[in-house]
Amino acid sequence: MSARDDGQIRQLPFAGVELGGTKCIATLAHGPGAVLDQRTIPTTHPDETLPAIAGILHKWRLDGGFRALGIASFGPIELRPASERYGQILRTNKPGWSGTDVLHCLSASFDVPTGFDTDVNGAALAEIRWGCAQGLDDFAYVTVGTGVGVGLIVHGRPTRGIGHSEIGHLRVPRTPGDTHRSVCRFHEDCVEGLASGTALKARLGEQRVRDIAPDDPVWTAIVDALAAMCHDLVCTTGPHRIAIGGGVVSSQAHLLGRIEARLVDSVNGYIDLPDSGDFIVQPELGVLAGPLGSIALAANAAELAGA
What we know:
Blueprint: H1 3-10, E1 14-19, E2 23-31, E3 34-42, H2 46-62, E4 69-73, H3 102-107, E5 114-118, H4 119-130, E6 139-144, E7 148-154, E8 157-158, H5 191-195, H6 197-204, H7 218-236, E9 241-245, H8 247-250, H9 255-267, E10 280-281, H10 289-305
Parallel strand pairs: 1-4, 4-5, 6-9, 9-10
Antiparallel strand pairs: 1-2, 2-3, 6-7, 7-8
Helix pairs in contact: 4-10, 7-9
């Protein structure tokens, strides 16, 4: 490749795909300040959704191309390259998606570096690159919506092992007197089962979340479960900052302060936490954290490939 060709490639934007449980967002961008195109595709069946996404990517390639591709997917997904299931969605509650080879379906036609990770790890990397975690190598991004997902970055990289982090399924102590049934079909006392948006709706019955006052007792169990999760994060990987977003928390401004206060009580002086207001924060990128997560994965892949 000539120096000129290399320079031209480096001027190209990145393409990214965020696959969510209800919708997928395809983004063509250089970064948060330069989003060139963005398309939303309903998450229905893989035979419908993935060809629609691939069609958008092919159009972008024909219209000028892209430097690298990032795929940030709902999970669980297989991230071990040595596994025969690498790139696939594993056991999921989303009908028809278990065993889907997302990585191959979306990347095989494009001869560009490709990054692949969970949607929450992608969002965490986007916050590190452009948002509230700039300059940090140890960071946790939490989203509390339909479920509870955590993107966990340790020493600058998403955690790996037998699988990606599933911190939403950490088992935590119940608030004394809390007898509401967990909405997680696997665990009776995990964070997602007790404190997700789905769990909150189950606790409320016919009441609407937006009608619940900040001092309503229903928030106590939510705060306790999320604070217990943060306690576990502090005592294991020790992130310098924890960003908590998603529909449940972003619509209730009082929750972050309550979670941090409960965390301080729980740690009980054993570990020195950063100053109040600077440790548990809102994601700076807001609703763009997810779509920009796929762009961050693409940018990282290009840098690793020297492209």
